[in-house]
Amino acid sequence: MTEIALTGRRPGGARGGGTALWTLVRAHLTLSLRTPVVLLAVLALPFAVLLTLLLVVGFRFPTIEFGAMPGVRVIDRLLPEMAGTVTAAAGILVLTLQLSEARATGMLRRLRRSPMRDGSYLAAQAVVAVVLVTASTVLFAAVAFIVYGAPRSWHPLYLAGALLVVAYCSISAGLLLGGMRMPRTGARVAAPLCFAMLFLCSGAGVPREGWEGVAPWLYEITTVNPLAQLNDFVFAASQGRLSDTWPAVAGLLVTAAVANLVTRRVFDWEGTS
Amino acid sequence: MTSLLSVTDLSRSPSLEEVSFTVERGEVVCVVGPPGNGGTTLMECLVGAAEPDAGHVEMLGVTVGPGDRRPPGLAAALRGESVPGRMKVGEALRLFSRLYGTRGLPRRMVDLLDLEPLLSRRFARLTDGQRRRAMLGLALVGNPELVLLDDPAAGLREGSRGRIEQAIGELRAGYGGVCVVLSDLAQAERLADRVVLLRAGRVLAEGTPSRLIRLLGSTYVMGVPPHLRVDRLQGVRVLPCGAATYLYGSREALENAIQELSPMSGDRVWSIRPPTLRDAYLTLSAVPEPAALEGVTEPAALEASA
């Protein structure tokens, strides 16, 4: 029988369930809010772009209707696009960097020696990403609605559902990328690259149609970028309809599910050399 | 009785070769050797940070291989391990306390390691000594049964070193098992119930410190400055080691040596002392390679007094 000398411990500890999950969510949310790259990717950069677009595009063409969609203003497209950007960034960029850092410092190994279940840690990462995305999206919506008023056509529940789909796909990608034994420097290069691809080539940061006249080659890239399919899906959902890209999105969901299975096998907790 | 830790023929090229030892309940086992002799690699293999080429490791009754999850009763503080620098010490302690099912901070451990002033500080802003105390505190949260430590007090001031030694002592008193890699043989002699002497990745000898010292028989030791010519001394064994040359032999042979060295050394007074664990290590390792011994801390008593 082991005596308790320095600390007290309840037998079994907080293996899984609510206690461990909540504890991990709180700790990682606090850490995320102190991480410059997280604030930059999830809040500062998209918000700065939104503000720029609001000021430049929004004020110049506040009432222009978007393409073939009567009643949809340019500004109405920005919110779902920004929300999609933030969601994908939180999953791919933030998760990859956070996990590679946690592995490099030995935090993952240390956590795994605790009674915590592996799934609790991964779930906590996902919850933190969703919390960050929600906070960021609400902030965007508040600014956009205060300046221009609510869109004429607006389906927040559909938008939330679509964002959850994007979140699932991007978090799955982030867990896979971050779960692989990638050096921290590698993650520092790969994650921003993914972000740039996402931001420029998916239509999330900059509307795809905008590239058609300016840089046709970039527009061609956007058409094959899977993130562009997700982006169209989010935008259509915000308008209360199912995007034409739903088969591609379904394919991405299946891919994400496969990525989850692969992650389960390849996730490197130990950073073993 | 099942050992808390059983290591059998653990090898990892080029650092470790067929290392075997055990750690029992209520025991502090020090794996001792100068830096570069495989201690850190051994710890990394045990916690899963490095993959051994061969061997068998059983901890807390569970056989563990590379990539296997270590049992929750194991704790470790390795030199390279940390937590994200943006995390505060108090936050990290609370996080792990909760994961182990404890509410609030483990006060006894916080007091013992003097962590109270560090609780609101981020890891990135700690000094090396503070960080190591904090990491030891993190390792001890959850009251582990088996603790693996990699030179936890190396380079620390006397106060921090004493606190860490006290914490290790309390773990032993609490019937836990502790395996510590150390480069300071004097510290190992103070702390260890059993010592595993490691030399170039191989186990040189294993036993209690007193038993290992007794291997030297009735030998006495004297340290002299390295510039003195000692090659003509009769009945003494000479081991040059960094800042001093050590002479081993019977008391009579060393007293004769003092007579012979006196003309060269002026009014110096030499002290002859009984051997320590460090002397046992130097003698057993037999090959006096100053470069390999640079990391061995000099016990104060070894110095020749003026």
From TrEMBL, chain A:
Pfam family, one: ABC2_membrane
Compartments, record wording: Cell membrane
Keywords (A to Z) from UniProt: Cell membrane, Membrane, Transmembrane, Transmembrane helix
GO molecular function per UniProt: ABC-type transporter activity
Main location: membrane
Ranges of residues in domain ABC-2 type transporter transmembrane: 20-229
Membrane topology listed for this record: Multi-pass membrane protein
GO cellular component assignments: plasma membrane
Keyword Transferase: no
PANTHER family referenced in this protein's UniProt entry, alphabetically: MEMBRANE COMPONENT OF ABC TRANSPORTER YHHJ-RELATED, MULTIDRUG ABC TRANSPORTER PERMEASE YBHS-RELATED
UniProt name for this protein: ABC-2 type transporter transmembrane domain-containing protein
Gene source species: Nonomuraea phyllanthi
The organism's taxonomic lineage, starting at the top: Bacteria, Bacillati, Actinomycetota, Actinomycetes, Streptosporangiales
TrEMBL record, chain B:
Pfam families: ABC_tran (PF00005)
SMART domains hit by this protein: AAA (SM00382)
Gene Ontology molecular function: ATP binding; ATP hydrolysis activity
Species, as recorded: Nonomuraea phyllanthi
ATP-binding in keyword set: yes
This protein's UniProt keywords: ATP-binding, Nucleotide-binding
Keyword Lipid biosynthesis applies: no
Stated name of the protein: ATP-binding cassette domain-containing protein
